[in-house]
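Q: Got a minute? One more chain.
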Amino acid sequence: MVVAYKVERGDTVYYANMREIVVRAPRKFKNAAEERQYWRLVFNVKKTYPYAKLAGQKLHKLNEQYLQITSEKSRKEYSKKVEEELKAEFEGELRKLTVTQGRILMRLVDRETGNTTYEILREFRGSASAIFWQAIAKVFGSNLKSKYDSSSGEDRIIEQIIEQIEEGSI
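A: Always. Here it is, folded:
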């Protein structure tokens, strides 16, 4: 391996770029059930995080193109076309997610986009559709209006897991 060096006062000092390493205290659990719950959350976040990142990227691109369209009819046609493309690409994979993974995905989409799932639905599908899907979500114990809050509760743990995923430690 070839590395840079510098001679200082007759001594050779070698320089190499290293990636940042974060040292964390090992996580402590009260009991085995809490540990199982944590590792289940890690599994669910690792499964849904790539979809949330992709949703953030696609929504950003979609918003740029959507705002350039002036007529309401053209916007509706464009939204319908994009929805069909997304269904064709992801529907099969997303249908395999569990209810818990779906809840986590909704939160992560809010984290990535800054908009709740309800707000995204309302913007692209209309208020009636957003209200309908919110009612369905409520039946299954979810809430499309829930905000991601990285400073408290389960979202704080999810944020820590995401940091570890991005640094490659889990």
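A: The longest strand covers residues 4-8.
Q: Perfect, thanks.
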